[in-house]
Design brief:
Dipeptide-binding Protein, domain 3, D-Maltodextrin-Binding Protein, domain 2, alpha+beta, 4-stranded mixed beta sheet, 24 strands
Length: 573
C-alpha cells in the first residue's frame, strides 16, 4: 500500500453500525477520528464483533477463503477458542502489563467504550457506557453507564455487584497516580484534568485542553480498563497475578511460561455472550514453535510474519481464513542516553544512518513493508511523505562510520529478548553496524528478564519487540520527557522542552489538516534532536484462522481485537 492509494479502511466495504443517534456536542473533523457524541445502542444488534450471527463483518479482512457465517446462521454455544503467542505472559496487571497478559486483561475487564482512530467507520462500540457526548467546549465529556455490568464470581470476597461510576473514578485515580507506574499515565498527566461521579450511572471527564484522542485513550486496552474499587484496593501485587472484573470472561487459570485459560462470566451484561466455553492462550518459545503448533492443530489461529508465509500456510491447509491489512506493529532500537555511548548524539545519529531499512523489508518482510519514521505509515495523514522521510533518515554507512570514529566508538553492546523473530533483526543489525565500522555485541535475555530490565530502563540499549501505538500521539510519546508512559518506565532518558511543546501542539489541534501538519513539523524537529528511539520499518498485518472460527476478531491496525473475543463462536459439527 502506498500513501497515494486510498485509505485501506475507506476501500473496505463495511455494513452500517446499526441504530445510531446524536446526543449533540462538537464533531471532531478529519479522518481517523470518530465523531464526538456519536452514540449507538448497547444491545445485541449493534454488536461489532465480526462476520456472523447478526454482527458487522470484519473490517479490512481481505482474501477470506473459508466459508463464514451469515446473518441467517445462528451462533453456536460451546467449544474453545485457542490462540497462541511468544515471549512471556508478564503478569496480568491491568494498568501496566504489555506482554501475553494483555489479551486476558482486555477480555476480562470492561472499558467505557471501544473505539479506534484507524477504523473510523466502526464508530463507537459501547461496553460499560451506553452513551456519551462531548460538550461544546470539547473539554467536558459525559458518560452514561449501564446498570447491569455485574462483577464475575471470584474467590477474593469481591461482591458480585454492578460496576458503577465510583469504580470508573477509582480506576482513573489509580492510572493518574505516577507512583503506580501505569501505561496510561502520560496522556492522563498531560491532558486529563479531573473526573468525578455525579451519580452511580454518570461519569464525567474534564480535559486540560481539547485533545484529539480522548476516545482512543479511554478505550485503549493497555490504558484504561475499569476495575471494581475493592479490587484496586487489594494492591499492585494482587492485580498482577489475578483478575476480578465484570468483562465477558473470567480467569480459570494462569501459568507463567505456559499460558492461561478464560471461561465465560455468568454475570456478563450481554446475555448469551461469550459464545465459547473457553478462551485459551498458549505460550511458545519462538515464532517457529508457534507456527508448528498451529500446523499441528493445537491452536486455531496464527500470525504469519509476512505475506509469503501466509501463502505457504494457505497452500498447505485448504479452507484457512486469511486476513491482511496495514499494521501499527514495528520493531525499534532503544538507546539509554544515561549510559555511554548513547549520551553522545553523534552515536545515535550514526546508528540511524547505518540502518538499511530496505534490507529489513526484503529479508524479514520479504518485500512487504515500508520505511517509517516516528509515526508509522498506517497513520497516512500524519506520517511523513516517503521522499522526505528518505532524506531525514538516509542510509549512509560511510557517513555513519565517520560519526562513530569522531565519537571514538568502535563497539557497543545491546540487549534483546529471545522471543518471536527478534533473532532475525539481530543478525541484520549486527551486520549493518559492522559495515559502519563498529562491533555491535548482542546480549540475548529470556523474555521475562529482558522485560523487567526494559521496564526499569536498566538496559544499555535494546532491540524492542513489536511496538503498537494506536494514535500518532501515543507513538510520539516515546520522545516526550518521561518516556512512553510519562513516568520513566521504558524511558530512554531523552528530554527536550521544544519537543514536548511540539507534541502537545499536535495532539491539541482538532482540525485534521492542521493536526497532520503539526505532526509533520514535530517529526522534522525530532530528527534535528537525534532521538534515542529509532524505528526499523512498518510491517503489514497478516493472520490466518481455521474455518470453524466464526467472527474471528481481526480488525487490522486497531487496538480492539482482544476486546471483542466475546463474539467468537466455533462452528464444528
Amino acid at each position: 500500500m502506498t500513501r497515494e492509494e486510498k485509505s485501506y479502511w475507506e476501500r473496505t466495504a463495511m455494513r452500517s453500525l446499526g441504530r445510531r443517534r446524536l446526543l449533540g456536542g462538537a464533531a471532531l473533523a478529519g479522518a481517523g477520528a470518530a465523531a464526538f457524541g456519536l452514540v449507538g445502542c448497547g444491545d445485541d444488534d449493534d454488536d461489532n464483533g465480526g462476520n456472523g450471527g447478526g454482527d458487522t463483518p470484519v473490517p479490512g479482512a481481505t482474501g477470506t477463503t473459508a466459508p463464514q457465517a451469515t446473518p441467517t446462521m445462528a451462533p453456536k454455544k460451546g467449544g474453545a477458542f485457542t490462540v497462541g503467542g511468544t515471549g512471556t505472559i508478564g503478569g496480568v496487571a491491568p494498568f501496566s502489563s504489555n506482554y501475553g497478559g494483555v489479551r486476558a486483561i482486555a477480555s476480562c475487564y470492561n472499558y467505557l467504550i471501544v473505539n479506534s482512530v484507524l477504523a473510523p467507520k466502526m464508530g463507537v462500540i459501547y461496553d460499560l457506557a451506553t452513551e456519551h457526548k462531548a460538550e461544546a467546549d470539547n473539554i467536558t465529556w459525559v458518560f452514561k453507564l449501564r446498570a447491569d455490568a455485574k462483577i464475575a464470581p471470584n474467590k477474593f470476597g469481591i461482591a458480585e455487584r454492578p460496576l458503577d461510576a465510583d469504580d470508573v473514578k477509582a480506576s482513573f485515580d489509580y492510572i493518574a497516580d505516577k507512583a503506580n507506574g501505569t501505561n496510561g499515565y502520560a496522556p492522563f498527566a498531560q491532558y486529563f484534568d479531573k473526573w468525578d461521579a455525579p451519580d452511580k450511572q454518570t461519569f464525567r471527564l474534564i480535559t486540560k485542553k481539547p485533545y484529539a484522542y480522548t476516545e482512543s485513550v479511554i478505550s485503549n486496552n493497555l490504558y484504561t480498563p475499569i476495575l471494581p474499587k475493592e479490587w484496586i484496593a487489594k494492591g499492585a501485587a494482587q492485580l498482577k497475578t489475578d483478575i476480578v472484573g465484570a468483562g465477558a470472561f473470567m480467569v480459570k487459570s494462569i501459568t507463567e511460561g505456559q499460558g492461561w485459560e478464560l471461561v465465560p462470566n455468568p454475570n456478563y451484561w450481554e446475555k448469551g455472550k461469550p459464545y465459547v466455553d473457553a478462551h485459551v492462550y498458549k505460550l511458545f518459545a519462538d515464532q517457529v514453535t508457534w507456527r508448528t503448533a498451529f500446523q499441528a492443530q493445537q491452536i486455531d489461529s496464527y500470525d504469519p510474519q509476512n505475506a509469503d508465509e501466509m501463502k505457504e500456510l494457505v497452500k498447505a491447509e485448504k479452507g484457512l481464513s486469511q486476513f491482511s491489512g496495514p499494521s501499527i506493529s514495528y520493531n525499534s532500537f532503544w538507546m539509554n542516553i544515561k549510559q555511554k555511548p548513547w549520551d553522545d548524539p553523534r552515536v545515535r545519529r550514526a546508528v540511524n544512518m547505518a540502518i538499511n531499512r530496505k534490507e529489513y523489508i526484503d529479508l524479514i518482510g520479504r518485500g512487504s513493508g515500508e520505511p517509517i519514521g516516528p509515526i508509522t505509515y498506517a497513520f497516512e495523514a500524519e506520517a511523513l511523505p516517503d521522499d522526505e522521510l528518505a532524506k531525514l533518515q538516509p542510509f549512509d554507512a560511510g557517513g555513519a562510520k565517520k560519526l562513530f570514529q569522531e565519537a571514538g566508538v568502535s563497539e557497543f553492546k545491546f540487549q534483546h529478548p529471545t522471543a518471536s523473530n527478534i533473532a532475525d533483526y539481530v543478525t541484520i543489525f549486527v551486520r549493518q553496524m559492522q559495515a559502519a565500522g563498529v562491533t555491535a555485541k548482542a546480549e540475548p535475555l529470556d523474555a521475562g528478564t529482558w522485560y523487567g530490565q526494559y521496564q526499569n530502563s536498566s538496559l544499555t540499549a535494546s532491540l524492542s519487540l513489536n511496538q503498537q501505538y494506536n494514535t500518532p500521539d501515543l507513538a510520539v510519546t516515546w520522545y516526550r520527557t518521561g518516556g512512553i508512559t510519562g513516568n520513566d518506565r521504558f524511558s530512554t532518558g531523552f528530554s527536550d522542552p521544544e519537543v514536548d511543546a511540539a507534541i502537545d501542539k499536535a495532539a491539541s489541534t482538532l482540525d485534521a489538516k492542521e493536526r497532520a501538519k503539526a505532526y509533520h513539523d514535530l517529526q522534522r524537529l525530532l530528527y534535528k534532536k537525534d532521538p534515542a528511539f529509532i524505528n526499523f520499518f512498518g510491517l503489514r498485518s497478516q493472520s490466518v484462522a481455521r474455518p470453524h472460527v466464526m467472527n474471528y476478531p481481526y480488525y487490522g491496525a486497531t487496538n480492539i481485537n482482544y476486546q471483542l473475543n466475546k463474539n467468537v463462536w466455533i462452528n464444528k459439527a
